[in-house]
Design a protein that fits this description.
Radius of gyration: 21 Å
Distance between the termini: 13 Å
Keywords: Signal
Number of strands: 27
Structural class: mainly beta
Shape: globular
Largest sheet: 13 strands, mixed
Number of helices: 6
Family: Belongs to the peptidase A1 family.
Pfam families: TAXi_C, TAXi_N
CATH superfamily of the largest domain: Acid Proteases
CATH topology of the largest domain: Cathepsin D, subunit A, domain 1
Protein name: Peptidase A1 domain-containing protein
Organism: Stylosanthes scabra
CATH class of the largest domain: Mainly Beta
CATH architecture of the largest domain: Beta Barrel
């Protein structure tokens, strides 16, 4: 899908508002309007939410992306959307390791470095002690990801174009990383994106900075289509007023992550005896990772249930660790979902509240025509006891991160509507 011009986006944002009014007639209620209008930036529009078109898929690309205009005059860059990290960074036009973008797609700093003595610089360091030889030194950063990937660079500040749902535009100055040393894990040497859009809870995240400037309320959400694409939104105008399952975020040591729990694992509506799971929502992860005990429970129950079906293990498919083949190649998820039972996470402190995972939320169909399990053993890849809910399990759900009331919500829906505009 090609990147659309801003004129097209302006039309789309207007249609977005009308379309959501039709889908969720109670969404735009008074209860969803800003509670503290006096604290808002005078540059902010009356409708303080912004929507971005998402592209990508779980398989075969392995990521969902948005495009942002940075600088003035603006230049377009594509970012992997990541609710599991804080820092936004883009590949830098500097001597660079791990950079695959051509020179005209790299970001070039222009006397806009963030200084080491700024509070925002402290926000990107684990230790509150900043190593500054002088207050005017540049703010260096290093961010490491759970999959052992990393980015090293310097913090800069530049204009980023933000278009509200009513069509008005602001260009706030936002701090982000200019990365010149990237490391990637997995079979691919580097992703095709220019960088990562950090949507986490830390003070340096894209969301937190927009909120601190008074431009949006402290909400971010996404809807990732199982068919590919979807949308990302900032602010609260697009939150359905009913039907959303809300679970409080955990006040744990992982305070910058979006984590909820404790949860029990269910298979086909039945208890698996796996409980007390803490779940981290991470849109930067293609697949879902469970600790060894929970992972083995899934594998055992799915495998035992399939004994009644005419499916065999496809040991020659390298796409994922566990795959199955039918009597003939599968063409889509609709061909395989009748063979598999649903999974769910039931929240132990919230009666009747579940995160439902139908087969299409934990399976992919590969180019070889096999069905593969998109839930992996997190302990085996170094995540220890962490449980990561990745893109595959977040598909076709509006997922909302409410940082004001510190809760996460979701509701199943069709995320394909933006393609039709």
């Amino acid at each position: 899908m090609s990147v659309k011009s801003w004129g097209e986006v302006a039309l789309h944002t207007l249609l977005v508002f009308l379309l959501f009014s039709a889908i969720f007639p109670l969404t735009f209620s008074a209860a969803n309007q800003p509670r503290n209008p006096k604290k808002r930036n005078p540059l902010a529009s009356d409708s303080s939410s912004a929507v971005f078109q998402v592209e990508g898929n779980v398989y075969p690309l392995g990521h969902y992306t948005v495009s942002l205009n940075i600088g003035y005059p603006p230049k377009l860059y594509d970012f992997d959307i990541d609710s599991g990290s804080d820092l936004t960074w883009v590949q830098c036009d500097a001597p660079c390791k791990g950079c695959t973008k051509p020179p005209d797609q790299l970001y070039k700093p222009n006397n806009n470095l963030v200084q080491c003595d700024e509070e925002l610089c402290a926000g990107i360091h684990v230790s509150k002690e900043r190593q500054c030889s002088a207050p005017s030194d540049q703010c260096n950063y290093e961010v490491e990801y759970a999959d052992q990937g990393s980015s090293l660079g310097v913090l800069v500040r530049d204009h980023i174009t933000l278009r509200y749902t009513n069509g008005s535009v602001v260009r706030p100055r936002i701090a982000f990383g200019c990365g010149y040393d990237q490391k990637y894990s997995g079979p691919n040497s580097a992703p095709s994106t220019a960088g990562v859009l950090g949507l986490g809870r830390g003070s340096a995240s894209f969301l937190s900075q927009l909120h601190a400037l008074g431009l949006i309320r402290n909400f971010v959400g996404h809807c990732l289509s199982v068919q590919g694409g979807g949308f990302l939104f900032f602010g609260d105008d697009l939150i359905p007023s009913s039907g959303v399952v809300w679970i409080p975020m955990l006040a744990s040591s992982l305070e910058k992550h979006y984590s909820i729990g404790p949860a029990k694992l269910l298979f086909d509506g039945k208890d698996t005896s796996v409980k007390d799971l803490e779940l981290i929502f991470d849109s930067g992860s293609s697949y879902t990772y469970l600790n060894s005990k929970a992972y083995q429970a899934v594998v055992d129950r799915v495998t035992n249930d399939l004994k009644r079906q005419k499916l065999e293990r496809a040991t020659d498919d390298p796409s994922l660790p566990i795959c199955w083949k039918g009597t003939k190649p599968f063409k889509s998820l609709s061909d395989v979902k009748s063979y598999f039972k649903p999974l769910a996470f039931s929240f132990q402190k919230a009666k009747n509240s579940q995160l439902q995972l139908p087969p299409e939320s934990y399976l992919i169909v590969t180019k070889h025509g096999n069905a593969c399990l998109g839930i992996l053993d997190g302990t085996e890849v170094g995540l220890e006891n962490l449980n990561i809910i990745g893109d595959i399990s977040l598909q076709d759900k509006i997922v909302i991160y409410d940082n004001e009331k510190e809760k996460i919500g979701w509701v199943s829906t069709n995320c394909d509507w933006l393609k039709e505009l």
